[in-house]
UniProtKB/TrEMBL annotation:
One MF annotation (Gene Ontology) recorded for this entry: DNA binding
Pfam families cross-referenced by the UniProt entry: HTH_IclR, IclR_C
InterPro entries: GAF-like_dom_sf (IPR029016), HTH_MetabolicPath_Reg (IPR050707), Tscrpt_reg_IclR_C (IPR014757), Tscrpt_reg_IclR_N (IPR005471), WH-like_DNA-bd_sf (IPR036388), WH_DNA-bd_sf (IPR036390)
Chain ranges of the HTH iclR-type domain: 14-81
Protein name: DNA-binding IclR family transcriptional regulator
Domain called IclR-ED: residue spans: 75-254
BP-aspect Gene Ontology terms: negative regulation of DNA-templated transcription
Organism: Compostimonas suwonensis
Keyword Transcription: yes
Keywords: DNA-binding, Transcription, Transcription regulation
Length: 257
């Protein structure tokens, strides 16, 4: 018996798929619920198309009705849990991250690069310090974070060049927004294998980060601790962060590093 041939996908379905992703990408930590009118305005998708796609996304479970509008649905969380690379990284890194949290008593973050941003894939908080910007699944610019600089310092020239040539927005008055200054900073990070965020992503907070590297010194991720102390105190945590990053890298690659 011959298998049924798959039906050709209509040409405009690709456009509809892109628009659906644009709608989903309109939600942020500050915009977790949006009406259909707001979705159309934020995304730039025509209102009639937005209405149709919202209904389809709700049927599939990607969107659900909230108190004041639409919000991302549980189906997306289920899919995110199946992502193999960050999930396996988290599985390996989690015991080491918990240990780092216990030793330092600071918030521990694990992040990977996506484009010109970092994405937080794990966070272990402390009760004494709230770090709202490092939520799971949240994003921040590479240049404005210790995690991002730790990854960027070991990235290929094309990736570094794209970041330096792009916009370097200042999240605080201390954010490095000058390309040459950032390039000098990355050279120091590469030499020391440690990166600092000294109130660059949020005033009143420091971050000490180290890259998690492949056997060929390619960046896989980065791990950090975050606290509210002076630079001289922040430096005291560098050895613990570096040792944790190295242990995770070795565990990921079966002891080869």
């Amino acid at each position: 018996m011959l298998e049924a041939m798959p039906r050709p996908i209509p040409q405009d379905s690709y456009s509809s798929l892109r628009r659906a992703f644009v709608l989903l990408d309109s939600f942020t930590a500050d915009r977790d619920e949006l009406s259909i009118r707001e979705l159309a305005r934020v995304s730039g998708v025509p209102r009639s198309t937005t209405h149709r796609l919202v209904q389809e996304l709700m049927e599939w479970g990607a969107l659900e009705q909230g108190r004041s509008g639409m919000r991302l649905g549980v189906k997306l969380f289920e899919l995110g849990a199946r992502v193999s690379s960050p999930a396996s990284l988290r599985d390996v890194a989690l015991p080491y991250a918990h240990n780092l949290n216990e030793v330092t008593k600071l918030t521990v973050n694990l992040a990977v690069r996506e484009g010109s941003d970092i994405v937080y894939v794990e966070k272990i908080s402390t009760r004494s310090l709230r770090v709202p910007h490092s939520r799971l699944g949240g994003r921040l610019s590479l240049h404005a974070t210790g995690l991002g600089k730790a990854i960027l310092a070991f990235s290929d020239a094309a990736t570094v060049g794209a970041v330096l040539e792009g916009e370097l927005p200042a999240l605080t008055p201390r954010t490095i927004s000058d390309p040459q200054t950032l390039l000098t900073e990355l050279a120091t990070v590469r030499r020391l294998r440690i990166a600092y965020d000294l109130e660059e992503s949020q005033l009143g907070l420091f971050c000490v980060a180290a890259p998690i590297l492949s056997p060929r010194d390619e960046p896989i991720a980065a791990i950090s601790v975050t606290g509210a102390r002076a630079h001289s105190q922040a430096e005291l945590f560098a050895p613990a962060v570096q040792m944790t990053a190295l242990a995770i890298a070795r565990a990921l690659h079966g002891g080869r590093h």
